[in-house]
Design a protein that fits this description.
The structure is a homodimer. The first copy, chain A, is of the alpha/beta class. Chain A folds into 3 domains: about 45 residues, no CATH class; about 140 residues, Response regulator (Rossmann fold); about 130 residues, Rossmann fold (3-Layer(aba) Sandwich), CATH 3.40.50. Helices cover about 45% and strands about 15% of the residues of chain A. Chain A binds a DNA duplex through helix 2 and helix 4.
Chain lengths: ~350, ~350
DNA sequence: TCATGAATCCGTAACGTTTCGGTTTTGCAA
DNA sequence: TTGCAAAACCGAAACGTTACGGATTCATGA
């Protein structure tokens, strides 16, 4: 039914190879170019990417495994990456592993079998075992948001230490000293880093971090609610709380609401991510904002670069990706609202 | 490098066709089955889906075009659909068109060229012109959330009239009569329907809908803020507002906050979608909730059914998808919070 | 043991590209 | 005009699978 390269070769009287060469940007004599283009028009020819893929061993497709599509941070990054990659002819196959290690393994394996050219992953598993197949095959991997020890690949992170530090210092500047934190799981990279950043900033200011002021959740709304209630119950003297991700920020707000405590008056608060939610809070919530666009741009760029240099079937001799993994670390921002009370004023 | 079907044919001494038959669930003698399985183990063989795709003219991939990934409603549906489709061996290529008609066309064309087996679309364009290529090729389409006049394909909707009606009747039951509405664009299917539902419910209760109580936004947060402020400024007697999608609900809450008006006291409110946001509001927001799981399940099931019956290359004679488009309409729920004040009490 | 139908098996020809190597054509200087 | 390198062209052989039609094998009953 659909026209093939053969048809247009026949129609133009040219050879297969010439047409193919034209399609791939090769040089073709002017009059032949016109001939070919006319034939393509007339027969509505479009190259069969599958056949091409079989021959070139590239699918022009890249896989993505993320913990939760239904999560503004992930979704926003995906939107941006998808845009960039599609402009370069790459389709994005997105797999949501629901923050489950097993599902993550399954997803990676699925994508491997689908022969995606590369993998972008916001990892849930702590070791890189689930990435083995891509690593072994020399297909490029870019990690986002979380680093993985012992896995040599590109990686885009934010400066979590500094993000938490900034938040704590805002509290300090406004006269707060009993500053609580709702942190993430200590076995998650960002959870660790943000907690460390909080601790360091306190110590720098001469304040000894206290365990009773730290509640660790699991990055879920439910966890945020629980943590906030715990902190409130256990620390009547606490005046401020820093929350280390978006879901728990929402949870913390819910928790305060349910306890009948007014944010920004009785308890000051700094949350994380999602400017929209922050604006919707009353009073407006101060948050750490992550540079979504930059994260996405860097991830896409790292991936595209790898794809450009390596990946052909018969790479002559040398291993393709001997170039070691690069790490990009980006700065976060602070979106100031009215949720931090000045104790001096 | 990687083992092919030929290798395992050679290893086992069997023919190509026999191995292929085994791989596709055909019957093979017990001893050969064992032979083949051993060879597959030993050579780490896995079928090349691209080659298979070339031969069968199926990519086991389906395309999705949505207006906004960064939108809880879309994202949640995608998560569910992805899960189901992947369990059936289908990869999801998701394209975000950012609520832009041109981008939507581009995305559909991109997916068509990528030769996805089917298309799931939450359409932005009003006519179905962007779907032409899939329609002509007889590749299945499933629309979500919005119907398209004149396009014959499967479609999963919710009962928007009833959703809006329920909201209005809750207000009425609590003694409200001056009920405002923040609606979507009238050229968007759901926008139309929800507005009609609101109007009908009022008329049914003997109240004449008034234009001054209706503000139309563009389904964005910004729009929600603007509409809420407009309504508040123009209608000092208004006691309740129904908001017709999630983003505008968030906007409306922001708007009220910024005007210093307490939700559930001065103004009662019913929003849309996203139970999490509703819980985070103070007081808890009453919302219309859409049956995400059911929407996703139905869309996936409709798609899978089409894929099962049609699509092979040389369908003998008959057009594959003569079976006309089916429309599934699902009921919404109501998640009651404390944002509707009883004027009688 | 033989015939017989059913169940398996097999070789080969596609599917639509790219690529290898060799051949023809072109443009240009002599 | 001729010579010659460079540019453009070409056919055929892959890439790894499926599917057709015919060949082989099997179990079974006479």
């Amino acid at each position: 039914m659909a026209a093939t390269i053969k048809d247009i070769a026949k129609k133009t009287g040219l050879g297969l190879a010439t047409v193919s060469s034209y399609l791939n940007g090769g040089n073709v004599r002017e009059k032949n170019r016109i001939l070919i283009e006319a034939a393509i028009q007339e027969l509505h020819f479009e190259v069969n990417e599958v056949a091409r893929g079989l021959k070139t061993n590239r699918t022009k497709t890249i896989g993505v495994v993320i913990p939760e599509l239904n999560n503004v941070f992930c979704a926003e990054i995906m939107t941006e990456i998808e845009d960039i990659m599609r402009n370069h002819g790459y389709a994005l196959v997105i797999c949501d592993c629901r923050t489950d290690g097993i599902r993550e393994c399954d997803a990676v394996e699925f994508l491997y079998r689908k022969r995606v050219d590369g993998l972008i992953n916001m990892p849930v598993n702590l070791d890189g075992r689930h990435l083995r197949c891509f690593l072994d095959a020399g297909r490029p991997i870019v990690l986002i948001d979380r680093r993985l020890e012992g896995v040599d690949c590109d990686c885009v992170l934010v400066d979590n230490l500094e993000a938490a530090g900034q938040a704590v210092r805002i509290f300090l500047r406004n006269g707060h000293t009993r500053i609580g934190m709702i942190g993430g799981p200590t076995d998650v990279f960002t959870g660790q880093e943000r907690l460390t950043g909080y601790r360091n900033a306190l110590i720098e200011a001469g304040i000894e971090p206290e365990d009773r002021l730290i509640a660790l959740g699991d990055y879920t709304i439910r966890g945020g609610v629980r943590c906030m209630k715990e902190l409130l119950a256990g620390n009547p003297d606490m005046t401020a709380v820093f929350v280390a991700n978006y879901e728990m920020t929402m949870g913390a707000v819910i928790g305060m609401n349910e306890m009948g405590i007014r944010m920004g008056e009785e308890i000051s608060m700094i949350g994380f991510d999602n400017a929209e939610f922050a604006r919707a809070c009353n009073p407006k919530l101060t948050i750490v904002s992550q540079p979504i666009r930059e994260i996405a741009w860097n991830a896409a760029e790292l991936m595209l670069e790898r794809l450009r240099k390596c990946g052909r079937r018969n790479e002559p001799g040398k291993e393709p990706s001997v170039c070691p993994g690069r790490v990009v670390k980006l700065a976060t921002g602070m979106l100031e609202g009215d949720s931090v009370r000045n104790l001096a004023g």
